[in-house]
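Z., the sequence and structure:
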Amino acid sequence: MLKEIRIAGFGGQGVILSAHILGRAAALHEGGFATMTQNYGPEARGGAASAALVISDQPVLFPYVSSPDILVCMSQEAFTRFSPEMKDGGVLIVEEDLVRLDNLPKHIQVYGIPATRFAEELGKKMVLNVVMVGFFCAITKSLSHDACVAAVTDSVPERFRKLNLDAFERGYRYGLDLLVKGPMKEENGDAIALEAEL
């Protein structure tokens, strides 16, 4: 099954690496197919950054994402820019401390995680992207846990491997807990966040 995924935020959050890990999990560890395109501003750190990923069990004939099935937003700017493009019934994943759910698209499922906070608790803010990858894996079930763990292991320097694997598991466990409670819901026009147990 083909899935269009966009991950967006700002430079320094590891947006591109997140997409790389997920693409690697799909193509190398699950025997599927993946394409990735990326876009980032000249400012590098602090500028807008996004990556578009298409994963499928068949060869990908068109590598660009126009209407994502899954959108991961790690900044308010990313949410404002890309959420209107989502498919009906899509899944929106947000860094809940950085994204306000204004003008939430209808007919989508929304899940939030304080990924930056979790990364800081693990001792390195820079692993928020891998926390988000773990959360993505649990929430969407697009890729298996084992394939994502293998892709994280392959994609980070050995000296940071344990830290990144801990970050992945933190996001993954939070996602599993959140699935029990369900997505954020829109009630009377207001977004209601359902939080998982920490």
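The first strand starts at residue 3 and ends at 10. The mean pLDDT is 88.

Let me know what you think.
H.
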